[in-house]
Amino acid sequence: MAVSSTHLVLLCLALLCTVLVALLASVGAALLARWDGATTPAVLLRAAIAFGSTLTLLLALITLIASTVT
């Protein structure tokens, strides 16, 4: 089945939004960890965990939506 260019553009926009939301979640986690008095390595670790978990969750959601639409 051929994929239209509209579907590809919407998928790219969804992926871009997903990465941006994950980035915002990681920045928020880093700021909260820094506020809590964590060291720099601990802050980076918490930010990475927040980024990875948010990205995984949102990509799974995009996959679910894309599989039901097509």
Protein model, in words:
The N and C termini lie close together (10 Å). This protein is elongated. It has helices at 5-35, 40-69. It is 87% helix and 0% strand. α1 (5-35) packs antiparallel against α2 (40-69). The protein contains two helices and no strands. By secondary structure, the chain is an all-alpha fold.
Based on Cα principal axes, name the global outline: elongated
- Stretches where pLDDT is under 50 for at least 5 consecutive residues are none
What is the H/E string? HH
| Portion in helices | over 70%
Profile the largest sheet: none
**Which structural class fits the helix and strand makeup?**
mainly alpha
Q: What is the rounded distance between the termini?
A: 10 Å
Radius of gyration: 16 Å
Question: What is the topology?
Answer:
Elements: H1 5-35, H2 40-69
Helix pairs in contact: 1-2
Please provide a brief summary of the model.
With about 70 residues, this protein is an all-alpha fold. The chain has helices at about 5-35, 40-70.
Question: Main traits of this protein?
Answer:
0% strand; mainly alpha; 70 residues; 2 helices
